[in-house]
Amino acid sequence: MRAEFERLRVVLVATRNPLNIGAAARAMSNFGFLRLRVVNPYEVAFREARSAVGASAVLASAEEFQSVAEAVEDCTLVVGTTAVGRRELQHSVRRLEDGARAIRKRLGASRVAILFGSDKKGLSNEDLSYCHWLMRIPTREEHRSVNLGQAVAICLYELARDGKTAGAGPREKQKAATAGEAERITEVLLEALRMSGYLAPRAAAATEEKIRRLVRRFGLSDEDAKVWLGMLRQMVWKLQSGKDAAG
Q1: Can you list the alpha helix ranges (DSSP code H) found in the chain?
Q2: pLDDT digits (tens, 9 = 90+) for 175-205
Q3: pTM score, two decimals?
């Protein structure tokens, strides 16, 4: 297994059918990507899925999480997959070959997560808000949706088919912030916005998703993330101090 393959996390979100999880694990084993994470799977017995032919080790070592935020916390790039369809998306969407090229480049230095939603509903808007950008498989317009196991196989084939080592090129000058660091910035920023009265109660959920997407578009480095978090925490402290003094 190539060293950079070890840094990829395949994340299956709210998968309804354990056979699909097994098929995804089989595709992962085929191409040498062994790190599977599942978020709130509908069927707890997925580790015994018969569709995971030759990939029982991938299922046995799969990590379970209660939320997308937890599943991608240690990754510096989070990519969602979508069939697009009639959805009004708030992210940039890259074709599979272009997205795979960008993912391979990042895998040379740090962890990357690729999110796949359920066959029935795909990824929710909230799930997508944790992504930096989205990727789509170029299917025909009349039949866009691809089975989950097939989608995982196609995406991983595209990542694996380039014989060049991802780490052979120039490394990124600065270490990128992880998704966990970006989420901590998001949480403190949202707290400041609530205290300032910016967040309207009726639109709180939509605004939270919008702010989360905005923070990820910054593409912060690890060092910049620490600076932003420090500044925002100071703002929250000042707002709280002023509130306490007025009370």
Answers
A1: 18-31, 56-60, 68-71, 96-107, 125-128, 148-160, 179-196, 204-217, 222-246
A2: 889 999 999 999 999 998 888 888 877 777 8
A3: 0.77
